[in-house]
Structure to design on (368 residues):
């Protein structure tokens, strides 16, 4: 019998107002009972299947940004950041100042959550009409291919957005680890946002002022079980993040994340204790396309499960997102995106399956 993640059943979009997703089985549970099976719903069409290669030596490296230089206002590092956002949309951040212990505690807390018995995890199951909680998102049809992962998504900042019914509070240390990690990510995000502001021709607090306060935050914890046929499945389908930007903490010893660069899939080789940062759709729009929110996906490992922790930084629901004035110049840089209320953008994203950047058309202006 399939271990289904139960749900609340109602069809209206729930409290967060962002969207809904059909309930799906837990792939971790399926693998627990039969680690050799590859159920049909997870087998992707030929064209979408990944090439699994052990040899990563020849693949290009994504840019590395030294956060300690950025925080000191080092001009060369700011320029490096600009090129990383423009040419790659992805970079790894080293020397971010977050204690290794905090990162390790967070990873351990997430590992402990996914190790809980299924009956226990189910207590935090997301409702069909919500996107928060344990389960999976972006499932809009019984016929679509499913991703080889389970997740738990929690809103973390502002603190009044925390829905503790989805938090595994009975798991010792989980709440403390997540809260501490969330605070540290917010600090890094503030500095990055200040740099993005300057690079978009605004004052350091420009983007923050535009949205009338600090960025919101939600943390998505992903668990990718092993699969006997990683060449047939995807851990997470190609997509771009609907965020301002995303900070990803991943296992040091399993490569899974791949990004689309010059039409090829490039693996992101983990640097221990670093964070992977990617530009989200909201920053692509605000920068009028100068910075790209890049398509990415995760592949599965045959021997080792993988955990990743994505911290999504995003604007307020009510903020109008559009290209900032300094990024528009009618002659050379005409406005490429319309202004759109952030909640409307997110609802569009959550109403579709993950399919590359298809959802970003919603904000694009027709160009000649
Ligand atoms: C995500 C994501 C990639 C990964 O959660 O949005 O892209 O490597 N995760 O887990
Ligand atoms: Ni993503």
């Amino acid at each position: 019998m399939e271990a289904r993640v139960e749900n609340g059943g109602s069809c209206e979009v729930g409290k967060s107002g962002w969207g809904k997703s059909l309930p799906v089985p837990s792939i971790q549970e399926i693998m627990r009972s039969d680690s050799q099976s590859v159920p049909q719903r997870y087998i992707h069409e030929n064209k979408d299947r990944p090439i699994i290669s052990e040899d990563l030596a020849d693949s290009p490296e994504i840019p590395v940004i030294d956060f300690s230089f950025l925080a000191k206002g080092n001009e060369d590092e700011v320029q490096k950041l600009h090129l990383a956002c423009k040419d790659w949309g992805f970079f790894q951040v080293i020397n971010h100042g977050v204690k290794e212990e905090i990162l390790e505690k967070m990873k351990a807390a997430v590992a402990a959550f996914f190790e809980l018995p299924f009956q226990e995890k189910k207590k935090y199951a997301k409702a069909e009409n919500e996107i928060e909680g344990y389960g999976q998102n972006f499932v809009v049809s019984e016929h679509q291919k499913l991703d080889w992962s389970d997740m738990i998504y929690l809103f973390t900042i502002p603190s009044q957005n925390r829905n503790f019914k989805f938090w595994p509070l009975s798991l010792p240390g989980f709440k403390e680890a997540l809260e501490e990690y969330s605070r540290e990510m917010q600090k890094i995000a503030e500095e990055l946002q200040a740099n993005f502001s300057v690079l978009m021709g605004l004052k350091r607090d420009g983007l923050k002022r535009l949205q009338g306060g600090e960025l919101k935050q939600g943390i998505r914890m992903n668990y990718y079980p092993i699969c006997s046929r990683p060449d047939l499945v995807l851990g997470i389908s190609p997509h771009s993040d609907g965020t301002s930007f995303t900070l990803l903490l991943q296992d040091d010893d399993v490569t899974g994340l791949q990004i689309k660069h010059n039409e090829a899939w490039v693996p992101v080789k983990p640097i221990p204790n670093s964070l992977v940062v990617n530009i989200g759709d909201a920053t692509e729009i605000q920068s009028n396309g100068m910075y790209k929110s890049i398509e990415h996906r995760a592949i599965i490992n045959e021997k080792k499960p993988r955990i990743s922790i994505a911290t999504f930084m995003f604007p307020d629901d009510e903020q109008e997102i559009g290209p900032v004035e300094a990024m528009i110049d009618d002659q050379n840089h005409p406005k490429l995106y319309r202004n759109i209320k952030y909640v409307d953008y997110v609802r569009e994203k959550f109403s579709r399956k993950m399919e590359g950047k298809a959802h970003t058309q919603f904000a694009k202006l027709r160009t000649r």
